[in-house]
């Protein structure tokens, strides 16, 4: 597990490298938790906490994992009540 404050210090490129090194060629299931994003970037987050990541950082992370053997994925923690 890499905590958010560590991700901010490392930068997405290093985070991606760490994930790829850990997962390797194994099958992977990717869960994207919308709470990863700063509520300014994702008003529909289920648990708004300041200091999250930008949509640009999230896209960099997701795109950086494209070569993993991802067999499934989901998106969690979207609050319909806050997404309007």
Structural category? alpha+beta
With helices defined by DSSP (H or I, 4 residues minimum), what is the helix count? 3
Average pLDDT over all residues: 90
Helix fraction? 25-40%
Give the DSSP E fraction (strand runs of 2 or more residues). 15-25%
Radius of gyration: 13 Å
Oligomeric organization of the protein chains: single chain
Low-confidence stretches: none
- Give the strand tally: 2
Number of domains: 1
Distance between the termini: 32 Å
H/E element sequence: HHEHE
Principal-axis shape = globular
Q: Biggest sheet, strands in spatial order?
A: 1-2
Largest sheet: 2 strands, parallel
Account of the 3D structure:
The chain is an alpha+beta fold and 84 residues long. It has one domain (4-76). The protein has three helices and two strands. The chain has helices at 4-10, 12-23, 55-64, and strands spanning 27-33, 69-76. The protein has a two-stranded parallel sheet. Helix 2 packs parallel to helix 3. The longest helix is centred in the N-terminal third of the chain and has 12 residues, at 12-23. The radius of gyration is 13 Å and the shape is globular. The mean pLDDT is 90.
